[in-house]
Design goal:
568 residues; eight-stranded mixed sheet; 22 helices; 15 strands; 45% helix; 14% strand
Length: 568
């Protein structure tokens, strides 16, 4: 895909917009921006500047921002900022005093608080509009926290929805413990009163128990992380989690203010490792005895007081309706936040439960509950399927599309996150065209894969599965790179439908079916050079006025491309 050079005016506009997004995230989450930290300055023989400084109590966040698209310029910028961050990292207290010396606005903040320079916790964040890659990040991973644009967009969405309560997600991203904020305090726990249900009445499988307890919104909000489909900054495999819905939260805040009472229905969560269950004497509850009983056991439940520990399966809107903000409801809700108690149902896992098993159990329960309330979307179902049944053809197809979304020549073109509004929708591509192409039991790519251990995929070998996904992405990627080369001269390899339909779902599906037909008819796949030669024969009018193939006519497009390029 050809890239045009942006004028300085366009670059400046993009930089201002990007900086505005960064500021919106931190200020919207409850941080204060320190203005007036302007210009180059020297610290321990290193000279640089700071794009933004945000503070919260004793937390200082220095943010470096870049919208550079040029790889060489990006490398130079990262090296300079990384070296400066390393210099600061060696003497953080001295750097804080240097800021006080140079910038009156920072000195004013310092004087308003009683923390010594040694009590401040400093984090240096590198925010880039372009993905800078894992290799570059590794060089400065001890000195910098990397805020990729997709993560920035995620935090922006969360801060726009739960406002100041989004700061807990940011603290987790910055690797700051709850006990480090403000005056240092030892790790603690949240204590709740409740019951552990007997094995029989709960009906859960062996060694899984259910607790019922009361917890205040003020206690659970910092500890909780929310189900959302994607955008979760922690890892790609958790991107099935769904977003909070802003209008629902706003409506519930209004309801809370008018009714002045809690919601009567319970919220459902999973309790983290390290949660303690004590009887009235302060002794650990005997779960084996409860398993043989038909009666609930009164319990003191101690939950680790750490960010992002409680996984909310159902009831996220009822919990986050109590978020911190400055709207007209805050005066009433602020009083309720610590005084009211929510009824929670907590699932207790055996101590030895592997993380993968927990994730599978939670995902199944999420579908069980939410699919009955409102039909879960196909994209979300596919994300969950990848966790529950990774060897299912749908899951393999989803894994392949995720890999294609990250690599040339389809990187930046396929929908990958909730904010990818104008990109190519992928759920139907996975279901109807990738599934038969990548299915190990079908006459597709698996047939021509020459890996000597390929049959281990039927034994659910995850290492072999990963190699197969990589193989599929590579072969599909080579076909589409030749497709791109054929169209690039005519400037048709673009997402804008007013210019071209070459990247419509219909065209993508037609190309995928060509590949499947090629394997079925000839039992082979071609090299990149061969694809280049064959697709040079393609003669399809992809202009908006000339493109004849609507979504239901993909098969006609496939036949035409195959006839022109591969039938000879």
């Amino acid at each position: 895909m050809s890239k045009r050079k942006f004028s300085k005016e366009e670059q400046d506009k993009t930089q201002r917009k990007f900086s505005g997004e960064v500021t919106s995230v931190f200020v919207g989450s409850g941080f204060e921006r320190i203005s007036g930290v302007i210009g180059n300055f020297t610290f321990h023989s290193q000279t640089s500047d700071l794009d933004n400084v945000f503070v919260y109590e004793n937390i200082i966040v220095l943010v470096e921002e870049t919208v550079s698209e040029n790889s060489d310029s990006l490398s130079i910028h990262l090296r300079k900022k990384g070296q400066f961050a390393e210099c600061i990292h060696k003497d953080e207290a001295g750097f804080i005093l240097r800021l006080c010396e140079l910038f009156p606005t920072f000195k004013a903040y310092f004087d308003r608080h009683s923390y010594s320079p040694e009590q401040y916790i400093l984090r240096h964040v590198y925010a880039s509009h372009k993905d800078i890659g894992a290799v570059r990040k590794e060089i400065y991973r001890d000195a910098l926290r990397f805020l990729d644009y997709k993560f920035l967009r995620y935090f922006h969405g969360i801060s726009q929805t739960i406002k100041k309560s989004a700061k807990y997600e940011i603290f987790k991203f910055l690797e700051i413990q709850k006990g480090q904020i403000g005056n240092p305090r030892p790790a603690n726990s949240i204590e709740c009163q409740g019951f552990v249900l007997a094995k029989g009445p709960s009906g859960f499988r062996d060694n899984h128990f259910v607790a019922s307890f009361y917890i205040s919104p003020a206690s659970i909000i910092p500890l909780a992380y929310v189900l959302r489909r994607d955008g979760n900054w922690k890892d790609r495999d958790s991107f099935y989690q769904r977003l909070l819905v802003p209008w629902k939260i706003s409506s519930l805040r209004e309801h809370l203010t008018k009714e002045e009472r809690v919601f009567v229905n319970n919220v459902i969560v999973t309790l983290p490792e390290g949660t303690k269950f004590l009887n009235k004497n302060g002794d650990q509850i005997n779960f084996q005895r409860i398993g043989m009983s038909q009666e609930a056991e009164p319990a003191i439940i101690k939950i680790p007081d750490e960010f992002n520990k409680i996984w909310i399966i159902d009831g996220q809107h009822r919990i986050f309706a109590y978020h911190e903000w400055t709207d007209s409801y805050e005066s009433a809700i602020g009083k309720m936040r610590g005084r009211r108690n929510l009824l929670a149902t907590g699932i207790i896992f055996p101590e030895w439960t592997p993380e993968e098993d927990r994730l599978e159990f939670e995902s199944k329960l999420f579908l069980e509950i939410n699919d009955k309330q409102s039909r879960v979307g196909s994209a979300l179902r596919q994300d969950i399927q990848c966790i529950i049944k990774p060897f299912d053809p749908i899951s393999i197809g989803k894994a392949v599309i995720n890999r294609l979304a990250e690599s040339w020549p389809l990187s930046g073109l396929l929908e990958s996150h909730f904010f990818d509004i104008w990109k190519i929708k992928t759920s139907s591509i996975v279901t109807y065209w990738l599934k038969p192409l990548v299915n190990p039991s079908a006459n597709g790519l698996f047939k021509v894969w020459l890996d000597p251990q390929k049959d281990k995929i039927f034994e659910e070998d995850r290492v072999v599965l990963a190699r197969y996904v990589e193989f599929c992405a590579k072969e599909i990627g080579e076909l589409f790179d030749s497709y791109r080369k054929r169209l690039i001269a005519e400037k048709l390899y673009v997402l804008d439908k007013k210019i071209s339909r070459a990247l419509s779902t219909t065209a993508i599906n037609g190309m995928l079916h060509c590949l499947k037909d090629l394997i079925e008819q000839k039992g082979i796949i071609y090299s990149q050079v061969e694809y280049d030669a064959y697709l040079a024969r393609m003669d399809i009018d992809f202009s908006p006025d000339g493109f004849q193939y609507k979504s239901s006519h993909w098969w006609q497009l496939w036949k035409k491309i195959y006839e022109q390029c591969f039938s000879q």
